Amino acid sequence: MSLDWFRNHFRNGVASKGSDEPCLLAVTPSEEDRNALRDIAGRRNWMVRFADDRDQAERALSEQPFGVILCDRDLDGQHWSDHIERLRAKSPGSCVILISRVNDEYLWEEVVHRGGYDVLTRPLKEAQVAPAVTLAWSYWKGWLQAG
């Protein structure tokens, strides 16, 4: 999949319901996370698609681009950095945000160093999720337009 493919699909409306509405992929089997994200997305008119594991996420990414990917730190029993690297390889330019019970400066720095965008702390709260997703979405849209 090329960068042009992502740009063309985004501009043609496949990536979102509208150009200003975030389109995100949430890779988490946690019902608590899913319910929180459904509620937040519903109030903000975001499109959200869920995947239970990295394989489902990679299939979803092969069907359409997502500007923002939320990824569970404890997914599949593998190290979170492997997930970030694989998701970023599958979806260049996407902002991968790690969902974790723990968040400190060291973890945030490691996430960014590995190509991730940010860290959200569980339980997911709208006051934390909304600004992170909105900024990541804006960054992704700028990345598409710059290339």
For the largest sheet, list the strands in their spatial order: 2-1-3-4-5
CATH topology (fold) name? Rossmann fold
Number of domains: 1
Low-confidence stretches: 1-18
What is the quaternary state of this protein? single chain
Structure notes:
This protein is an alpha/beta fold and 147 residues long. It has a single domain (3-146), classed as Response regulator (Rossmann fold, 3-Layer(aba) Sandwich). The chain has helices spanning 3-11, 31-44, 54-63, 80-90, 105-113, 126-146; strands at 23-27, 47-51, 68-72, 95-100, 118-121. It has a five-stranded parallel beta sheet, sandwiched between helices. Strand 3, helix 4 and strand 4 form a beta-alpha-beta unit. The radius of gyration is 14 Å and the shape is globular. The two termini are 15 Å apart. Mean pLDDT is 87; it is low at 1-18.
TL;DR of this structure?
The chain has helices spanning 3-11, 31-44, 54-63, 80-90, 105-113, 126-146; strands spanning 23-27, 47-51, 68-72, 95-100, 118-121. The protein is of the alpha/beta class. The protein has one domain (3-146): Response regulator (Rossmann fold), CATH 3.40.50.2300.
Can you give keywords for this protein?
147 residues; alpha/beta; Rossmann fold; 5-stranded parallel sheet; 6 helices; disordered N terminus
